[in-house]
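Justification of computing resources. Each target in the renewal requires a structure prediction run like the one illustrated here; the chain below, 99 residues long, is used simply to show the kind of job we budget for.
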Amino acid sequence: MISSVILMEENKKHILIGSGLIVFFFICLGGIAAAAYLPGFAGELGRMCLAWITSPFLMESALFFLALTLLFAVNAWRRNKDGDDWVKLDENGHPVRDK
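Resulting structure tokens:
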């Protein structure tokens, strides 16, 4: 019973972190879109960034690399949290515990 409560709390934490990352991403996109309406050089830079982000090939490749980077980051974090995966086997192929 207690482990299920801890698991539920951990799931809520993961959902909040994931939701926060998605919200941050869309706030950044909204900021770039809003910068396109600024006057002068800032507006030109905002329009250039908006055009670069929304062009089909660049948008797809940027999202691919962003997702790949996030995947590697989450996997590295999980492996650091879980610890070493090294397993010693005896001559019959059965795992041996360190003493």
